[in-house]
Amino acid sequence: MRAFLLSFTLLAFLASIVLAWEKEDHEIFDLVSALEAAEGKGTSFYSWLDVPSTATTPEIAKAYRKKSMILHPDKNPNDKTIHERFARLGVISTILRNKESRERYDFFYKNGVPKWRGTGYYYSRFRPGLGTALVFLIFVSSGFHYIIQRINYRTDIERIDRFVKAAQQAAWGPKLVPIEGQRKVRVNISEGRTVDMVVDAKNVYILDDSGEKHILDASTASRPDFMNTWFIALARSTYYRTLDRVSPSKEHVSPETSEGDESSSEAPGSGTATPSEGRVAGGKRKRATKKR
């Protein structure tokens, strides 16, 4: 939950910054990038016109006329980039001679052009295809799914440790001095809900109504695995279903299906393994051999 709140806060902060850029800002970003690519890194609107950043509008107009005579296409017939440079000069001169546009540029001139300019800015220039967008969304959502798995795994481990310690305290006392042999105890897992457990010198077991024991330790928690994220799990499930349809006479059992059957099966009538879902830690159970 804490990780989710931090992620949401970060996204909201970035969104507030990105939404602050307007169409005119994006045009300035393009001009800055194009000017540095053509005239050299670090070239600014002012340095290209050869005027200080404090130049007045008449001074900028005068510098523009002087520069335009140098970059005029008629005087540079062999320069293939001259038309583009000449047009860029006119746009830059217009920005600097307009009070509002110049204030926008001066802000980025003093503080620097942002490296991240918003998804809309990059999308409008690179136009990723539908396939690229889908792959990106699948990758991001699968990454978040894996993070959730890790969070759930840590939560399960903490819950298991809490239940194991509670059972050992009930069997051995508050000092947790191990006693030989097995002891059956009843542990309160939530308000008004208890579960029978068996404690011996090495392990703690959950005892179901049939008398069968299921070991309770860290191995019963489901470990995070990128192969179990939603897209890969869906692809594997679809693959095995396709095999079943193509070869109905053969049995194809997917690893996650067989493993899921074992993890989701519960002892008859126990129903008290976890406070929220009826299992102690949301993972797999190991069965101990029932002693006769």
TrEMBL record:
The cross-references to SMART domains, in alphabetical order and at most eight, read: DnaJ
Topology relative to the membrane: Single-pass membrane protein
Q: Which PROSITE patterns match?
A: DNAJ_2
Q: What Gene3D superfamilies does this protein map onto?
A: DnaJ domain
Does the keyword section mention Metal-binding? no
Identify the residues that the record assigns to the J domain, covering every copy.
44-109
Q: Enumerate the Pfam families for this protein.
A: DnaJ
- According to its record, what are the GO cellular component terms? endomembrane system
Q: Where is the signal peptide?
A: 1-20
Q: Where is the composition biased (Basic residues)?
A: 282-292
Quote the biased-composition stretches of kind Basic and acidic residues, using this chain's numbering: 245-254
UniProt subcellular location: Endomembrane system
* Transmembrane domains' residue ranges: 129-148
Query: Which residue ranges are recorded for the region named Disordered?
Result: 245-292
List the keywords (alphabetical): Membrane, Signal, Transmembrane, Transmembrane helix
Q: Where is the composition biased (Polar residues)?
A: 265-275
Q: What is this protein called?
A: DnaJ domain-containing protein
